[in-house]
Structures are given as C-alpha cells and as structure tokens.
Specification:
8 helices, Arc Repressor Mutant, subunit A, about 160 residues, alpha+beta, homodimer, two-stranded antiparallel sheet
Chain lengths: ~160, ~160
C-alpha cells in the first residue's frame, strides 16, 4: 500500500505519530510511563506483555526519542526508562485519546479509568480545543492555513480547501 | 501477537481508538471530513488515495460510526459522508495529534499547517490538559482512579499503581 506520508508532505507528521502510537502495545507502554512505571520488569508485570515484544517496543520508543534509557543511578548497570520532553508533551494527546475512547466504548457513566488532578483530587475535564481567547471551539470554528514549512503542494491543497468553503 | 485490548479490559478503549485511527489513511480521511470534504470524489482527489482503499476505509469509518453516509438531498441517489457526533468529538484528539506531530517532525517554526480560529483568524493554542480550575496540568500533576466501569482486574492494577508512588 502507498503510505500516506510518502505521498503528501502535509501528512508526514501524522505518519510519524501513527508510527509511534499505532503499533500494538506502544501507547500502553507510554501510558504506563506517564503513570510512573520505569523499570523493564515493572512494564512487563503490569502490562503482561511478552519480554521480546516489550524489548522491541522500548527500543523503538527510545529510537523515536519518546523514552530515554538511563542508568538507575550514576555508574549503575541497571537501566530505567523515562519520558523525554517529546514524550511528556504527548500528554494532551494521550488524555484526549483515553477520554474519547472511554466515552465511546464504555459510555460516559461507565468509564474504567478517571484522570484526577493530583492536587485537588478532582476529575480532569474533557480535553477541548480552545481559541486564544479561551472559548471552546467546535469543528466549524476551525480553519487551516499554510504554515512556514508548507511545501508548494501543501500550500496549493490548503488554498483549494479554503476556496471551496 | 496477543492484542493488548484482549488482554486487559482497562485497554479496550485504546484498542478501539487505534483500530479507527491506526489504519493507513483513516485519520487523513477524518481530517479531510473536518476540513469540509464530503463526497467520495473529493476525498479521492484531495488525498490521492486509490478508490478501492478509500471505499474500504469509508465503509469501516461508517461501521465505527465516525462518518454517516447520507443522500446529498432527500431522495437523491448520490451520497455524501458527514461526521457523526462521535466523529466530531475526535477534534481535540486530532488537533493534539497534529500539533504534536508537526512540532516534533517539522519543528515549532517550520510547521506545514496552522489551525486558525475562524472568527478571530488567530492561531489555535497548543491543546493542553487543564484542571477543573483551569490550570495547565503537567504529567506529574495527574493521577488515575478506578471509574464506575472498572473491572476487578483494572481496579487492582490501579490500586497497585497508586500504592507504588
């Protein structure tokens, strides 16, 4: 199959995200890392994942700079996996994905997991798209324009989209 | 491979999301729908996707109730694809995914696409996770608890996670 990201430079970054989260287990490993899991044995025990698959996924998450493999302390032989800045910035994506999935699979009143604000102990509201003024935006309130990194092809597609509105 | 969602009921909804967005092209079709594309020919032309693949993906997106296939007007033979409520609620996920992907693939100053608030014409700020009080939450500010739909297995895993902190 023609890979979307090969075809259209506009879509390279979507391809990158799916390459990272789309593979079985990867997103669950990232979620565990957010929940504080660091050691290989902990990931293995909590996810019940085969060791060879976990090894491959952790390697790839490190190669993609989502996780960093570091000694547990200076000079130690044992290693642990911690989220990089790039990995930490996945949080809104991960929370939005879980909120949406739980709502539409389990239903609003039947969610298996609730995210809490640690300090207040209150549930975290649904992740929303806000305007710079803080208003919640619906799909019809959003449009796109070409950014500084748009190729000519991308620019033309965006112009065509906006023309057709 | 053992599918994650089969193994752990906590992860069924993540499995559902990845089933929808993980397959090549699906997320790009959803994004086109958000940008106003409705007709088969338009999707085909704008994405440059093979007709048989587009047919299969649209069918699955309808089966998963992301898109709805409706006559262009009452009694018409031609159909178009419109986002359902379930599909529209993917917006925060989609914007978070694009923001993150663009930032980490192209870099902050080299983004191919910029989302604008249609009314103000201003760029949409990064999607964030907020507390009920409106504060931006970082990973360490978030914890989880079992929801009403948690199975005993999920409940035990969440308790173990929280115990280890």
């Amino acid at each position: 199959m023609l890979k979307p990201e090969k075809h259209d430079p506009l879509n390279r970054s979507v391809g990158h995200v799916l390459d990272i989260i789309g593979e079985g287990w990867s997103i669950l490993i990232i979620r565990e890392a957010f929940l504080g899991t660091r050691r290989f044995e902990e990931f293995q025990g909590r996810l019940g994942i085969a060791r060879n698959i976990l090894t491959a996924r952790l390697k790839k998450l490190c190669a993609n700079e989502i996780l960093d493999r570091v000694p547990v302390k200076e000079g130690a032989k044992r290693h642990e996996y911690i989220l990089t800045t790039k990995g930490k910035e996945m949080m809104p994506l991960l929370v939005a994905l879980t909120h949406w999935g739980d709502k539409w699979v389990y239903g609003e009143n039947n969610k298996p997991v609730i995210f809490l604000d640690r300090e207040q102990g209150e549930p975290i509201p649904q992740v929303q798209v806000y305007s710079a003024q803080g208003e919640v935006l619906r799909p019809r309130d959003v449009m796109i324009k070409a950014g500084p990194g748009a190729t000519r092809e991308a620019r033309e597609r965006i112009e065509e989209l906006n023309k057709n509105e």
